[in-house]
Write a structure and sequence with these properties.
The protein is an alpha+beta fold. The protein has helices spanning 3-22, 70-78, 143-157; strands at residues 49-56, 62-68, 88-98, 106-119, 130-136, 139-140. The chain has a domain at 45-160: 3-Layer(bba) Sandwich (Chalcone isomerase), CATH 3.50.70.20. Helices cover 26% and strands 29% of the residues. Strand 1 (49-56) and strand 2 form a beta hairpin.
């Protein structure tokens, strides 16, 4: 076998190998899921629409932004309550810090958490139809931190389908 033929064969093997690893049926690694609810970080959530921003006072001192998938945004715009199954809300949170460019401004500092709510009335019937996920540095927080989610939402946002955030048009 000559060198050119050998290189062509190796190229075919590499192309075939690249095709197999990139094939859509090839299983992808499962993202880390939250304890209790099994919620994961939704793919592409950083490109979702803004629902509303918020400031959290002491002791957390956070800037928070809630994003929603298309189902969530449509429900908010229609004023639909309760939210339909398939609604997903993601809250991004950062420590507040003073702006170095504009003295009276507060800007995001270090990221603290990404929190996810998923509406599925069958799967999450025991927790008001919502599943919860709290992630720190992309990894799920421990089970103790997830135990408080439903109780807090039920106690403080019952009249708004257990959702704190109101739409900021």
């Amino acid at each position: 076998m000559n060198t050119l033929h050998a290189l062509a064969c190796m190229g075919a093997i590499l192309v075939a190998g690249a095709f197999v690893t990139a094939h859509p049926d090839t299983p992808k690694p499962m993202p880390a899921a939250s304890p209790i609810y099994g919620v994961t970080l939704p793919e592409g959530y950083r490109q979702w629409e803004l629902i509303a921003p918020a400031l959290e006072a002491a002791p957390l001192n956070e800037i928070r932004t809630v994003l929603g998938n298309r189902i969530a945004v449509d429900a908010y715009r229609r004023g639909a309550q309760p939210f339909p199954d398939g609604t997903v809300l993601v809250k991004l949170a950062w420590k507040q810090q003073p702006s170095t460019a504009f003295a009276s401004a507060t800007v995001p500092g270090a990221a603290t958490t990404v929190q996810v709510m998923v509406k599925d009335s069958k799967k999450y019937a025991a927790s008001g139809s919502w599943g919860y996920g709290r992630f720190i540095d992309g990894k799920p927080a421990d089970e103790a931190q997830h135990r408080t989610c439903y109780a807090c939402h039920e106690a403080r946002a019952k009249g708004h389908d257990d959702v704190f955030t109101h739409y900021a048009p």
